[in-house]
């Protein structure tokens, strides 16, 4: 990999290009840069979620995920490189199984709502889905290892589950359960 940043304002991107870890330069609208940006946005939103009151085990999991996302972004910036380990995908599978086991089965679709932490987890989930789509788009044009795509797919599922966990944790006193979509309510409103 290339050198770590020693200064931020290098002005080398003023021409509309950015440097990759292998030293090559690509346009800032390159598919690889788009995927890197979506992963960075996801990691930033997880940072916002970490600023909320969270159960200790969820906090530790999210911190680990932030580090793994940094590896994923590094891998995307390094054509042909591999930084994200298969064990990271397995960790997400295990977390999904653990947290989902304690939740009641869904009876209806849920809305991305509830406590502030749950709502932020839902925002993270949607950004994870966008990042996954960006990686899939990049993989249609260039060779990409499977782990980044798999990781983002599992992570979006886990963030959905964690949103449900956070609603039940009710650490801000404003939630307590999932917010269910009320299809009957919509039918009633449409009839009026």
UniProtKB/TrEMBL annotation:
Residues 15-24 have a biased composition (Low complexity). Residues 1-26 are annotated as: Disordered. Residues 8-165 form the Cobalamin adenosyltransferase-like domain. Keywords: ATP-binding, Cobalamin biosynthesis, Nucleotide-binding, Transferase. Its EC number is 2.5.1.-. GO terms for molecular function: ATP binding; corrinoid adenosyltransferase activity. The keyword Cytoplasm does not apply. Homotrimer. Belongs to the Cob(I)alamin adenosyltransferase family. This is Cobalamin adenosyltransferase. The lineage of its organism: Bacteria, Pseudomonadati, Pseudomonadota, Betaproteobacteria, Burkholderiales.
């Amino acid at each position: 990999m290339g050198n770590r940043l020693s200064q931020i304002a290098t002005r080398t991107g003023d021409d509309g290009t950015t440097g990759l870890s292998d030293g090559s330069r690509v346009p800032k609208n390159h598919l690889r840069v788009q995927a890197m940006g979506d992963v960075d946005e996801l990691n930033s939103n997880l940072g916002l979620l970490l600023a909320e009151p969270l159960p200790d085990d969820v906090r530790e999991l999210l911190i680990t995920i932030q580090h793994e996302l940094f590896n994923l972004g590094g891998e995307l910036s390094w054509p042909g490189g591999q930084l994200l380990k298969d064990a990271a995908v397995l960790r997400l599978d295990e977390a999904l199984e653990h947290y989902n086991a304690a939740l009641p089965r869904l009876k209806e679709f849920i809305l991305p709502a509830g406590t502030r932490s749950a709502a932020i987890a839902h925002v993270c989930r949607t950004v994870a889905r966008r990042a996954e789509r960006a990686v899939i788009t990049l993989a249609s044009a260039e060779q990409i290892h499977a782990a980044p795509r798999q990781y983002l797919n599992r992570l979006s599922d886990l963030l959905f589950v964690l949103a449900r966990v956070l609603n039940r944790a009710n650490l801000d006193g404003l939630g307590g359960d999932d917010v269910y979509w009320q299809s009957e309510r919509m039918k009633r409103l449409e009839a009026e």
